[in-house]
Amino acid sequence: MLVKKKRPTKKMPTIAQLRMAFEKANKLSVILEIALHDMQKAELSPNHKICMSTWYRVMHDGICRVCLAGSVIAARYSRLVKCDRLGCIYPDLLRGIDECEDKLYALNELRMGCVSSALRAINKRWLGPHELDRPISDYNEHCPGYWWGDMGSLLGDLRAAGL
C-alpha cells in the first residue's frame, strides 16, 4: 500500500507577528528591508497605489495610497488604529507603539536618501551628516526600477556599515 506523504506547509505569519518584527527591529537596514518587502506587496496589490507624497490614505475609490512608510502601516498597523476624518493614518497616530512612530519617520528620510536624518529619527543623539547620504531617484509608478535600484544599493550599504 502506497502512503502519500504530506508536504510541510509554510505557515504565513500573523499580523501580530509582522507587527512585532517591525517593532523589534533596531537597525536601519532591518527597518528598510521590512519596509521594502511591504512595499513590494503593496505594489502588487489592487487595493494599493504607491504615492510617495502620502503616508496612508484611503481615497473615495477605495484604493489606499501609500508611501514607503505607509506600506508598513498598511501591512502591519491599519487594523490597529482608526483613520482620521480624511481617511488617513499618520505616524503620530501610532505614538507609543515601541518607537514605531520614529521608525516610520526614519523610513520617510531613507526614501529620499537622508541617512543622517533617518539616524536622527531613531537616535536623537546623532549629529551631523553621514557618508551614506545620497540622492535617490523619484519613484515613478510606470518605471519604478531606478528607485528600487537606488534603494537596494542603499540597503546593501547600510548592511555593510552595520547600520
Word description of this protein:
The protein has 163 residues and is mainly alpha-helical. It has 6 helices and 3 strands. The chain has helices spanning 15-24, 28-44, 68-77, 100-110, 115-122, 145-160; strands at 48-50, 56-58, 64-66. The protein has a 3-stranded mixed beta sheet. Helix 2 (28-44) packs across helix 4 (100-110) and helix 3 runs antiparallel to helix 4 (100-110).
Number of helices: 6
Strand order of the largest sheet: 1-3-2
- Which of globular, elongated, flat, extended, rod-shaped describes the shape? globular
Count of the separate structural domains? 1
Largest sheet: 3 strands, mixed
What do the pLDDT scores average to?
Answer: 84
Rg measurement, Å: 17 Å
Strand % is: 5-15%
User: Helix/strand/pairing class, anyone?
Assistant: mainly alpha
* Unreliable spans: none
Give the SSE string: HHEEEHHHH
